[in-house]
Specification:
By secondary structure, the chain is mainly alpha-helical. The protein is built from 5 helices and 2 strands. Strands 1-2 form a two-stranded antiparallel ribbon. It is elongated.
């Protein structure tokens, strides 16, 4: 194989000119956009102290505790009966075997009464 030859100055200029023409040629491909500095601001804010909800924009990260408090405040305002009601404890179902394949709830009617649901409603849930 012959040794690689060096390009002459004229050939080097032609190659540079050809590469510039290719750069100017628009093939319908979008050029990559440079990323803005917004991500750096968010990273700086994450490392520092959290701002209050009035200081944050729509794309900023809100602290979980603030979001949770807003949810509880909205529930207390719109549905006060949901806040602080007595706890509901469900009795465990009593299950028995009927024959070799069937299983039945012995206390199904009592469970429905405690849930304030009709037996048909609860049965449709089990059959779904």
């Amino acid at each position: 194989a012959p040794p690689p030859s060096k390009m002459s100055d004229n050939e080097d200029k032609e190659a540079d000119q050809a590469s510039e023409e290719l750069d100017d040629l628009d093939l319908g491909m979008d050029k990559k956009k440079k990323k803005s500095g917004k991500k750096k601001e968010v990273e700086e804010r994450e490392e520092g102290t959290w701002a209050g909800p009035t200081e944050l924009g729509p794309n900023d990260i809100y602290p979980y505790a603030d979001i949770l408090q807003r949810v509880y405040d909205a529930i207390a305002e719109k549905n006060p009966e949901l806040m602080g009601g007595k706890k509901f404890t469900m009795i465990p179902p009593q299950v028995a075997r009927e024959g070799s394949k069937k299983t039945v709830f012995v206390n199904f009617k009592d469970m429905c009464k405690r849930m304030h649901r009709t037996m048909d409603h609860v049965m449709s849930y089990f059959n779904a």
